[in-house]
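Researcher: Good morning. I'm working through a list of sequences from a screen, and I'd like to move beyond sequence-only analysis. For each chain I'm collecting a predicted structure so we can compare shapes side by side. This is the next one on the list. No need for commentary yet; just the structure.
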Amino acid sequence: MVFVVGAAVLRATVVPAEECPPLSASQARASIAEAAAWLERGVRPTGVYTYGYDRKRDLVSADYNVTRHAGVMMGLYRLAAKTGDAKALAAADHGLPFLRANLVRRPGWTALAEPNGDARIGASSLAAAALVHRRLAIGEPIYDGLIRELTRFLVAQQLPDGSVLGSWSAQTQRPIPGEYAEFGTGEALWALALVDRLFPDEGVGWPARRLASWIATRRDDVESYVLTYPDHWAAYGLAELPPGSLGDAEVDYARRLAGIFGLHSRLESQSGRDGLRRLMRGEPASGAGLGTIGEGLAALWRLSRSDPRLGDLSDDLAERLRCTAGRTVERQANTSEAARFPRPALVRGAWFTEDGYTQMDHVRHPLAAILATLPVLGKEPKE
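Model: Good morning. Structure tokens for this chain:
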């Protein structure tokens, strides 16, 4: 009896039980709709979106950057491509003038840059991914040329070892040597893989595979990550490469990613706002943190379904994905919660940090993760 009581105390204080709220497909779709509506309500006449909101102080953030702008466009276009959501398509199109106004054009390529600033690999990658999903949503080829030009910038930033430099300097008119991008490396892989799927004769399949190999074998050491970096964008990229095209190193890397995201999912499911959970497992992740865990798990689950070498991970990834998605939906601000604040329209459908702040990526990432969970949840039974 003493042993049983001791074990229970140990579990409660050292290893808190997981909390994985049940989630139905209809609940997931409702959450997706609310998140998309938050982004759509953020559309402004200037061609940008609401960047962030502090609900405790009732302050709208004046910050902005082109990478997150491209990310919101990509998320909305992706939703439109997968569901036919016309409102999402219109809201994504709203961001096109701002995107076009911040393009840097040079002989052979085009990049997306901060106003009067450097061109970043991540911003250009997400811009290309956004336009690919617009093409998939409506089949209109009007931006095919721009997709190719943005892709050529990514290839121009690639070094002989397969890596990609993170920035191009407006001052020197050259890539910045030795500078990598924390998120941009994986974003570039995903963009190249997407473009290769859309335009298989464009010749970007080989740069994509070289980058995948570099990420799998050298990236963590060169970019100074002690452990495998939990890169959901790289997971997206691996899942988008042609089935069977991964080498043994990339398969091993996918397994490491699965372990990292699985661990993060479990730790998140054991975290909480109460004293013991906060002490032992920390505060719950932000909306962006929750979303990227779900996105990484979902991409690897897709990969495990298409590559038999990873098939043994499929069930475990699906379980972790359902748990993380349930946690994510549970923490989304609903109508009754939003009514307690001065501007409910800036609260409902978003995910807020402990100090009451949200921003566009805290909404976009969970939206993408829940959308990617739908195939795991299956169809709803008829009533």
